[in-house]
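Following the same procedure, sequence and fold were stored together, as reproduced here.

>
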Amino acid sequence: MTIQQTPLDRRTVLGSILVGITTGLAGCSALSPSDDDPSTDTGGDILQSVAVEGVELVIDLERDAIDQLNVVAPSGELFAKRTIESGVSHTTIEVGTDYPPGEYELLGLNDDETVETTTVTLEPDLELTELRLAREYPEEMYEGASDSSTEAEAILSVTNRGTGPTAATALRFEGDVPFPTHESYDEAGESGIYDPESDFGADAESIALPAGETVLIYSNTRPFSPAGTRSKCDSVGQDGQFTVRLSTSHAIGLTLDYVIHYLGSSPDDCGIKIERSS
């Protein structure tokens, strides 16, 4: 893919044909499909379908009808350009997780003339659906998770109900958890998210959140450490409040508020239970 940030005259690039088709979710979606969800848009005669799969646009097109495909960003700048070789009827264009949200135009060209145009809206829509203690759901932890990590970490479910991908970039725990996220994570730019691709338990730079999918995010700051739990039993008492905060590459800030119950009669016999704040 060739990506250029070149201003274009929108009237010039659109030509005289405009097919107003907005594509939606596609691929292996974790969301329930609806009757009016255009996940496989029939498109036009040449640009036959456009779908969002993972962090890519997937385009089916009429064979040998165009020799170039341009993607124009909402700003009117050229976002991507793809040469279409003879005999090709299927191509992909990487969107990534840090694009400008909005409506994108796809232009099919032949000999530098626009022959067909369609549109696709790329916009994430996130929801933090559930936070769970890993110790209560060890089967949901990442492969190779140690017992100490399972005892101390949390699992956050994030659902992207939008039409475009994004990425989780920071996970924070604030309030009466056993170990709130230390301010040094912000100062150092650490995500506080476990990197499933790392063999050394490192923080992930980001975790992709594809459109139409629910992704499990694993904490990497030990917010529910048993050692911290014992110390909190005296200082917090039976009940406390905490907030889980997720930041993303599209500057979408999401929070969930929880009540935490410290259970037990002494620091040596102290467990925890969490529930959503009403």
User: Anything to note?
Assistant: The longest helix spans residues 226-235. Residues 1-42 have pLDDT under 50 and may be disordered. The chain has two domains: 10-122, 126-276.
